[in-house]
């Protein structure tokens, strides 16, 4: 690959039709960090996650009330994992409607995300948005997350990719979507004032500590699994996090507003001074968890873990050790300054190895194909359907670890066939002129003779286009 | 167009370029005859204490009291355990002596990360990321040349990745690519070993799925039928694997587990029925990465634990029993004061069961599939 082809494909999201070939690839990438728009027009007027969740929970509370009147049953939001089991209960038509509406919001958000990515003139910055969104993954695998999965990326990730890691972490890990996804809204301090009162009322549902968010922050967002923490640290951190919850769940004068959709509710907070990674946290209330997050952000294990993931995303599944070392050192030196980290990456020779280093993930492939070929995207529903069939719906990874970032997870026989099927359908609707010129623009100076020949010998413009979209050059970056 | 022999391809003996590096099992190749293996991974850590509930342990009621209603009319597995009522078809197989439940089992993993635990469960190593390929791939290597292996998924999961040629398949709702394009692509990938191999494998497996190529994997009935159809006949897969997600029940576990188990049950029922005369030669192993805490957490769920349960099913499995050296659930008996203490190694169990099923040398099976351990493969899993 030439430097221009690397800048377009490995760092960016693929050639955008009508754009010039970058003449100074490194400068072209770095300039995008200035040009990047955290709130593009595509997001204007979108309802925020806080409002969506408030409406949703108001609905649930009302439904519970109706159900108590009716059958005496209680039906929690978290129980509505599968709509089909509830077919027979008339009260549950409402639950199904909530699920359906949640999916509709998500599909519209997938449309927004794809339109932003396809039209972007700052594709390197948009790739970083996708990278961080996957690092701090929430998943519609839990149905109650579907309606706010897009909010998480738009509100918690986009505005912070150009700041410090600490800001990004606090914003992403404490966004209402994450608090919902990782059960934080239901974590109660075992000795909190509220729990103490409940103990005297055995008929009221008891609550307790939930370790999920604390564990995943340590394991997946900051230190990494071998980052030197233990079960006791998880538990103590979970205690520090108690009280952080959704404004949709806790209202009233005792709830302290933190950010849209998020409150700190002192009656849920575990009193005491937790000891985490050898340090005691004596801060009051919500400041306790924030102080822990700040310390985690500055930890050498976090620097190493983030550096490894970033290097893996750009420089190969087994990232070169010197690159990881350099990124980690830069992270520690600058206090997790993200633009400095990106600059270090772009200026590192290891990231410019001429051989393709990554097998494109389905979303990357679809984005590159669309950027190269279309002005107008298909409607949201078809777009989401296409990504699902390709095997990667945004914001729906199987676990909080996000989607894998190695070829072995994506380079499957069946996955390849699906790309071919989609490419053929896509090509059918495209003007099939000048496919050879398009190929040169997409892979400047880097088109293989084999692909060039296949395109030249195709029996129709449509077939040439389909072949270009599934050529080896399109599968890797 | 080069006519592909799907049987040859599934066995990985066609020219598959880089992926067809020597089949590692060549030296100890075994005649596998008609034996089939279907491995189902329950991802997210299924709660073994709900799947097979130890009602005979007094501490169980203390820990799980509010959830016991579920088991009011549940099938008794023996005088101690009852089966979750959603597992109707599994229960019927158990009654016929064709389902075995192993309890208080765990892999060698003793921490509580899903991702590391799944890595260990799939690689068969003694520590996460210690092995680079999956034990099911190594098993396929041991069974060569008759051991074609397939993942019912769009891509190959870690458990099946490695040197032995394997494939993956998942039904698609997209219309098939036209024949004309298909031919051209073969040429387009001719110089690219990785893509050429993937493309040829995909073509071969699609042919096998036939009418079920549009089945919906989220429909448990269809998934079970499709799984069986991919294992049918002489050219069918000898090894198949499938993931079921959604077992991480941190909140409101009762409903979640019941729904997931019902899906698993329908899938296994459809699979059993469709396997027909092959059932006596078939083994199904249902495994998960670890168990869950004994105590309920604050959100009517359970958190990541250690010991759990596993199933073996099959027409020749010596079932109708629960294998467990029960450690007890009283506070002092728990692992780290919170989890079911594992008393049986999942690796020992799997190595033993697979050695018996495929007539492999147990010591060789243990050291190939689950290297770096001193324990011997278990025995007594199959009727003789």
UniProtKB/TrEMBL annotation, chain A:
<dbReference type="Pfam" id="PF08811">
    <property type="entry name" value="DUF1800"/>
</dbReference>
<dbReference type="InterPro" id="IPR014917">
    <property type="entry name" value="DUF1800"/>
</dbReference>
<protein>
    <submittedName>
        <fullName>DUF1800 domain-containing protein</fullName>
    </submittedName>
</protein>
């Amino acid at each position: 690959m030439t430097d221009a082809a690397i800048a377009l494909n490995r760092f960016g999201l693929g050639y955008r039709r009508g754009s010039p070939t970058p003449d100074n690839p490194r400068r072209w990438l770095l300039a995008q960090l200035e040009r990047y728009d955290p709130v593009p027009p595509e997001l204007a007027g979108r309802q925020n996650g806080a409002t969506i969740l408030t409406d949703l929970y108001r609905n649930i509370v009302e439904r519970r009330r109706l159900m108590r009147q009716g059958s005496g049953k209680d039906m929690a939001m978290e129980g509505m994992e599968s709509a089909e089991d509830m077919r027979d209960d008339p009260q549950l038509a409402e639950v199904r409607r909530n699920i359906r509406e949640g999916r509709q919001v998500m599909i519209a958000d997938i449309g927004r995300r794809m339109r932003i990515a396809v039209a972007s003139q700052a594709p390197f910055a948009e790739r970083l948005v996708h990278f961080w969104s996957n690092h701090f993954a929430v998943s519609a695998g839990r149905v109650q997350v579907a309606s706010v999965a897009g909010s998480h990326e738009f509100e918690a990730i986009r505005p912070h990719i150009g700041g410090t890691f600490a800001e990004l972490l606090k914003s992403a890990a404490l966004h209402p979507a994450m608090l919902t996804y990782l059960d934080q809204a239901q974590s109660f301090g075992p000795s909190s004032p509220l729990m103490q009162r409940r103990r005297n009322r055995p008929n009221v549902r008891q609550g307790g500590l939930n370790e999920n968010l604390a564990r995943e922050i340590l394991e997946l967002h900051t230190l990494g699994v071998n980052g030197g923490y233990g079960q006791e640290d998880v538990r103590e951190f979970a205690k520090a996090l108690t009280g952080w919850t959704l404004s949709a769940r806790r209202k009233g004068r005792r709830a302290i507003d933190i950010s849209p959709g998020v409150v700190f509710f002192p009656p849920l907070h575990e009193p005491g001074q937790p000891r985490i990674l050898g340090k005691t946290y004596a801060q009051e209330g919500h400041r306790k968890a924030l102080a822990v997050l700040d310390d985690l952000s500055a930890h050498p294990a976090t620097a190493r873990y983030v550096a490894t993931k970033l290097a893996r995303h750009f420089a190969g599944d087994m990232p070169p050790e010197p690159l990881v070392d350099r990124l980690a050192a830069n992270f520690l030196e600058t206090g997790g300054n993200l633009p400095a980290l990106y600059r270090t990456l772009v200026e590192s020779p290891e990231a410019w190895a001429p051989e393709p280093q990554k097998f494109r993930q389905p979303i990357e492939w679809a984005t590159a194909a669309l950027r190269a070929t279309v002005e107008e995207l298909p409607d949201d529903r078809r777009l989401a359907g296409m990504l699902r069939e390709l095997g990667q719906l945004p914001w729906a990874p199987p676990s909080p670890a996000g989607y894998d970032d190695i070829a072995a997870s994506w380079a499957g026989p069946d996955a390849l066939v699906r790309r071919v099927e989609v490419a053929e359908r896509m090509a059918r609707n495209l003007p099939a002129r000048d496919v050879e010129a398009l190929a040169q623009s997409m892979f400047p100076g880097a088109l293989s003779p084999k692909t060039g020949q296949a395109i030249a010998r195709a029996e129709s413009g449509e077939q040439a286009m389909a072949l270009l979209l599934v050529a080896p050059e399109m599968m890797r970056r | 167009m080069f006519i592909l022999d799907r049987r040859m391809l599934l066995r990985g003996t066609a020219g598959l370029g880089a992926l067809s590096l020597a089949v590692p099992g060549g030296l100890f190749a075994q005649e596998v005859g008609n034996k089939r293996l279907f491995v189902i991974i329950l991802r997210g850590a299924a709660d073994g204490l709900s799947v097979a509930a130890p009602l005979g342990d007094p501490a169980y009621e203390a820990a799980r009291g509010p959830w016991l209603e579920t088991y009011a009319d549940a099938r008794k597995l023996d005088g101690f355990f009852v089966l979750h009522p959603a597992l109707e078809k599994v229960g019927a197989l158990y009654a016929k002596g064709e389902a075995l439940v192993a309890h208080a089992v765990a892999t060698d993993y003793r921490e509580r990360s899903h991702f590391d635990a799944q890595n260990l469960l799939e690689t068969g190593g003694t520590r996460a990321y210690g092995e680079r390929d999956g034990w099911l791939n190594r098993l396929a290597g041991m069974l060569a040349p008759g051991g074609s292996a397939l993942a019912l998924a769009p891509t190959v999961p870690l458990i099946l990745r490695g040197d032995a040629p394997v494939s993956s398949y998942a039904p698609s709702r997209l219309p098939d690519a036209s024949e004309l394009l298909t031919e051209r692509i073969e040429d387009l990938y001719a110089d690219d070993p990785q893509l050429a191999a993937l493309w040829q494998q995909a073509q071969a497996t699609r042919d096998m799925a036939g009418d079920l190529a549009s089945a919906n994997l989220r429909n448990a009935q269809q998934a079970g039928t499709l799984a069986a159809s991919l294992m049918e006949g002489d050219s069918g897969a000898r090894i198949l694997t499938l993931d079921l997600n959604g077992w991480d029940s941190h909140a409101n576990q009762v409903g979640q587990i019941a729904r997931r188990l019902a899906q698993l049950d329908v899938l296994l029922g459809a699979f059993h029925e469709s396997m027909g005369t092959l059932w006596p030669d078939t083994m199904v192993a249902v495994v998960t990465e670890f168990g869950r805490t004994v105590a309920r957490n604050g959100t009517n769920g359970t958190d990541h634990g250690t010991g759990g349960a596993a199933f073996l099913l099959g027409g020749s499995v010596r079932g109708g029993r629960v294998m467990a050296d029960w450690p007890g659930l009283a506070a002092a008996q728990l692992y780290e004061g919170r989890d079911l203490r594992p008393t049986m190694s999942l690796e020992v169990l799997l190595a033993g069961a697979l050695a018996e099923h495929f007539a492999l040398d147990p010591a060789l099976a243990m050291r190939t599939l689950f290297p770096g351990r001193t324990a011997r493969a278990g025995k007594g899993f199959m009727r003789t």
